[in-house]
Amino acid sequence: MAQEGEDSVTRALKIKREEFRVEIRKRTMDRMFAEKRTCHSTSEPAHLKNLTEEERRATTSKSVVEFKKALLEQDWSRAGQTLEVLRHLSSNRDGPTTKHIGKTGVLPYLVDLLDIKYASYPKVQLEAVWILTNIASGDSTDVANLVAIDGVSKIIGMLFWTKDTAHIETAIWALGNVCGESLIYRDQLLAMGIIDLVLEILGSQICEYKILKTLVWLTSNLVRGRPYPPEREVLRLLPVLAQTIHMESEDILSDVMWSISYLSDVSINLCNRLIELRLIPRIAKLLLHKNFLIRIPTLRAVGNLANSTDEHTKLLLENGVLVGIGALLEARKPVIRREACWALSNLFACPTELLEYAVQTDIVPRLVRVCLEDEIIVRKEGLMALVNLANKASLEQAIIIIDQGILEAFIRQFTSGETDLIMIALEGLDQLLTKGNVMVPGLNSVNPIARMIEQKNMIKPIEELQFHDEEKVFQGVQTLIERHFNCTQEMLSLIHISEPTRQAEISYAVFCLKKKKS
Q1: C-alpha dihedral sign at 116, 120, 126, 132
Q2: Distance (Å, rounded) from C-alpha 372 to C-alpha 332?
Q3: What are the φ and ψ backbone dihedral angles of 442, each rounded to 5 degrees?
Q4: Any alpha helices (H) in 162-308, and if so which ranges?
Q5: What is the mean pLDDT of residues 445-467?
Q6: CA distances from 396 to 401, 436, 479 (A)
Q7: What span, in angstroms and rounded, lies between the C-alpha atoms of 158 and 148?
């Protein structure tokens, strides 16, 4: 989402690691999705408990035969009883019952029962749509079988006429399952007018809590996945989010924030619309929510919004998002700490004046601690955030963040043995030293940042980095010193000797720094 007039350096700083971000999204949502997919029976009959797989298959086949017979005889009471058995069987995750039900040929009968002509038999209809919901919770073959017999359109059709809240909730659940199976089914649902249906139910008197909770979950599936659905379609769902983000239900808030995290990644226009709904204060507050299933998508949304425009970044910082992100830097799970670093990386790629929000808090020391102590994969993301901070900081801000430990975070990487971390740290150090060079240009001027490096006894790690095995590291440190320590080509030629005979005592880093003092 490149903003108009954005310079290339700023754009480059707003780093979006797509593979990592998709991995988090899929891992988290799959777990939540698995919890929602199957409509669980609350009290399974005793005779259905502890059945073996073979016994479940036999009971399923017998129940289907009895159901078809009852249907033929129009014995609706017995039809409802046999469907209830099938519903309990299909709700069990321990066996392949849903797939076996599909093989019995009963699905077309269940789909047909959703017609308005059977409205006089609500028990039968509820059991039918419940079983279909569980069928849709199966694998791609199960969902494909349901779609092939026009099951989805029948479920949608029932929602247009029924007023029974149990039917409505279960039918919405079924559509959420289908939508979550693949982007193809999601797009088919959108083409069938599912958003009109969502908005109609949302504005109706029958939209009680259980329906609303399932409706919000369906909404999150409708905007989930790449390529994203057409922007004109998802814009219509914003009222759903605006209405529900201020609720206290943790289930609803989690799905609302996942929806916002997806929408904030679609376009700057959608980000603008989210801002216009005045959601930022609530989003900032949710970063501190006790439930991590809410904080994770909220963190994603913050990172995406910061990746759009400087004005959005300003609103986020003004509303105190750094407090919530700082707390998440100490989360138990590395994947959350890494995501927090990514969000900070985008926030720090802002105009210099906005960095005052960062340098006047404890966010930099917290981030430095991550870069010093955390796992490599988290440290790397944290270092990238510090590089962005160093790039955008003024000289005065640079001196403050040096006092807060940013130099230690960079220099410590030189002895980490990790080439990627070393190269990022060299870039960050280069950005800091550049601030001093701009302030005090000239061959004989003393770079204040270089002086601070020397005062903090950090010369030795730079010196030893000259003997790193990786050529790109050697070239990187050579360029650093040539650029910032008044080192001439003649001085550099002193160390252009073969690796076995390099003298540890003669470092161009130390030599140049001492030269500055003379």
Answers
A1: negative
A2: 16
A3: 120, 150
A4: 165-181, 183-191, 194-202, 209-222, 231-234, 238-244, 250-263, 268-276, 280-286, 292-306
A5: 85
A6: 9, 10, 25
A7: 18
How many Å separate Cα 488 from the centre of its chain? Answer: 48
Confidence of residue 21 (pLDDT cuts 50, 70, 90): very low
Ramachandran class of 204: left when φ > 0, alpha when ψ lies in -120 to 50, beta otherwise: beta
CA distance 299 to 344: 10
Cα–Cα dist 344/330, whole Å: 14
Name the percent of the chain in helix, strand, coil, to the closest 5: 75, 0, 25
Per-residue pLDDT, 52: 81
CA distance 128 to 113: 7
| Residues 122-136, mean pLDDT to the nearest whole number | 94
Triad 430, 433, 435: Cα angle to 5°: 115
* Residue written as token pair 């790193």: 468
Sign of CA dihedral 440, 444, 446, 449: positive
User: Which tokens in the block code for residue 204?
Assistant: 């109706």
The single-letter DSSP state of residue 50 is T
Buried b (16+ CB within 10 A) or exposed e, 464-500: ebbebeeeebbebbbebbbebbbbeeebbeebeeeee
Please state the length of the chain. 518
Measured between alpha carbons, how far is 224 from 504 in angstroms, rounded to an integer?
A: 56
pLDDT, residue 37, reads 53
Q: What is the pLDDT of residues 470-481, one digit of tens each?
A: 999 999 998 888
Reduced to 3 states (helix: H, G, I; strand: E, B; else coil), residue 185 is: helix
Alpha carbon distance 272, 481 (integer Å) = 44
Residue 423 contacts residue 406 (beta carbons within 8 Å)? no
What are the pLDDT digits (tens) for 143-201?
999 999 999 999 999 999 999 999 999 999 999 999 999 999 999 999 999 999 999 99
pTM > 0.85: no
Angle (CA) 42-44-46 rounded to 5° is: 145
Nearest to 293 by CA among 266, 333, 323, 263: 333
How far, in Å, CA of 503 to CA of 497, rounded?
9
d(CA 223, CA 266): 10
Ordered alpha helix ranges (H), 307-375: 310-318, 321-328, 334-347, 356-359, 363-373
Which structure tokens are listed for 55? 């016994």
Query: Quick check: 174 and 166 in contact, CB under 8 A?
Result: no
Q: What is the mean pLDDT of residues 347-363?
A: 93
Question: What CA–CA distances, in Å, run from 82 to 24, 89, 119, 171, 470?
Answer: 42, 11, 18, 20, 71
Q: Does residue 441 carry a pLDDT above 70?
A: no
